[in-house]
Amino acid sequence: MAQKTIQCRLVASPTTRQYLWMLATEKNTPLINALIQAVVNHEDFETWRIKGRHPADVVTKLCKGLKTEAPFSGQPARFYASAEKAVNYIFKSWFTLQSRLQRQITGKQMWLTILKSDDELTEMCGQGLETIREKAAQVLAQIEKAVETDKTEGSPGKSTTDLIRAQLFKKHDQAKQPLIRCAAAYLLKNGGKVPEQSEDPEKFTHRRRKAEIQVQRLQDQIEARIPKGRDLTGQAWLSTLLTATTNVPKDNREHKQWQDKLLAQPRTIPFPILFETNEDLVWSRNQSDRLYVRFNGLSEHTFQIYCDQRQLPWFQRFLEDQDTKRASKNQHSSALFTLRSARISWQESDRKGHPWDTHYITLFCTVDLRLWSVEGTEEVRQEKAAETAKVLARLGEKDSLSDTQQNYAKRLTSTLERLNSPFDRPSQSRYQGKPNIIAGISLGWDNPITLAIWNASTQEVLVFRSLRQLLSKDYDLFLRQRREQGKQSHDRHKAQRQGKNNRFGTSHLGEHVDRLLAKAVVVTAQQYGAGSIAVPTLDNIREILQAEIQAKAEQKAPGSIEGQKRYAKQYRSSIHKWSYGRLLDQIGSKATQTGLVVEAVKQPWAGNAREMAKAVAIAAYKSRQAVVS
């Protein structure tokens, strides 16, 4: 879905601000904290952690029991729903992260079972090292031949090295003979090659210990990342301070935990209030043509809309959609409202006084970009009509329906009828690109972004664009951002060494550069008639960046492990850091606005920036062909 989030400031009377602040800080946020703690303390929590998800209704049941208690009672119904949504969002993302960490732990633990010294391998198979080496050479030759034969049918975007490594793991797992299993393990630990030099026992011990530390760090992350809510009163910080000043830490790990808690920036802003239904917001206009909004649950309180000229048309559209439905006596469906959801948040300011006076109230609205034009609205209407008709068809296949199901079917039928009532919206021609032309994007350290426009019909690259070429006259902004990041990194390191607060705010220059890059990528793709933009998935971005650094280190200090480590450390500190996720979000948002399809594939590790950008485009095309076949 082509979505975008816009924002405005809400201005209200002191009484309204105070009421909303007290409601958020004294009731809603404490309720969310209590719900988080109740989920963590639930008897089935470990089961949910293993499964990677929690039951859909568990938070609702917990909230039902808590909202009658004195600290949490008296809130509008929408605020209870908001608390449930917030907790569900928190644990959905947390369980997903836990599952990812657990998979990483499982993979690294499996690697530890394979990673054996030469002496251990000879003992396991009862053969000499030379016999293992000979068998390893045979196994490698077989796999290389098979990979070369099947390379055209291999996984999209994977290099020959990756395919050989995958086959070696498969050979190790399926081997019934100890000699073949040890030969595969020997190749895996040596990078898919038969080394010419004998193994250094000291280096191997260090390597294995490093892998064990990685597993331990991942396990520590799993244990330390349990959601805790927001401590608005600062009691948790005071408790940690008391503990740290009256006790001696058991070890360095506990000392580090206390230090991190004491140096962390306190979260004094309450959780936002979520409105998942667009009809929870009621829009109006006064005699001075000023826009106002009221919220279900806060109907007695009115908020003025303050925004810039770029955002104003969106808020005017919200009012138009609402007025259209009212004028037709609800013959139009809110499913086609441009506004999809909203949330009220608080933001700190430099003003002094009561907390409800020193914090701004901000409204964030999520919109569907397609619903701006009549063409996009028709596209959404067809999608929703097809989904509704499919549900009705499933209900119609049942022999009998309960009263609840019958009422649900009536609502769906009514929705289907209202979807046919058009909204008066401007016409906007949509871009139509050629599906055989793909814009591939690669990410990296030296080159944060590289663009390649690839033609699948001719198998040729039409054009390459580097970051500098994409930004053109705005490249100085990128250099300025890089200098700011370098200074901030230095200040943070200095504060860490002195044990001071090392959390510094950042400017919005990076976001501006991201928007400029996204616009340049989309414009270039359109110039060459691309039908889609292929972007890398971020699940292996760290491996890609580390592989790039390691390759540079090996080139600068061949044969010297210590020299490579020193170079890699120095290199990381000298280059900029980039928010790749934010950049890809901007590209995806800009692309969908103009009608370009966004395809996500894995980026290969091998090659330079141009080769990887081309490989991403090719991988997207192969992935598309695989789905069709």
Cross-sheet strand order for the largest sheet: 2-6-7-1-5-4-3
| Fraction in beta strands | 5-15%
Total count of helical runs of at least 4 residues: 22
Which residues form runs of ≥5 with pLDDT under 50? Answer: none
Overall helicity: 55-70%
Q: How would you sum up the major sheet?
A: 7 strands, antiparallel
Describe the protein:
There is one protein chain. The chain is of the alpha+beta class and 629 residues long. The protein contains 22 helices and 12 strands. The strands form 2 sheets. It has a 7-stranded antiparallel sheet. A 5-stranded mixed sheet has the order 10-9-8-11-12, with helices on both faces. β4 (291-295) and β5 form a beta hairpin.
Per-chain topology:
Elements: E1 3-11, H1 14-40, H2 45-51, H3 58-66, H4 77-114, H5 118-125, H6 129-150, H7 160-174, H8 178-189, H9 201-224, H10 235-246, H11 252-263, E2 273-275, E3 281-285, E4 291-295, E5 303-306, H12 312-327, E6 339-348, H13 355-358, E7 359-368, H14 374-396, H15 403-418, E8 434-442, E9 450-455, E10 460-465, H16 467-471, H17 475-497, H18 509-527, E11 530-536, H19 541-556, H20 561-574, H21 580-594, E12 597-601, H22 609-628
Parallel strand pairs: 8-11, 11-12
Antiparallel strand pairs: 1-5, 1-7, 2-6, 3-4, 4-5, 6-7, 8-9, 9-10
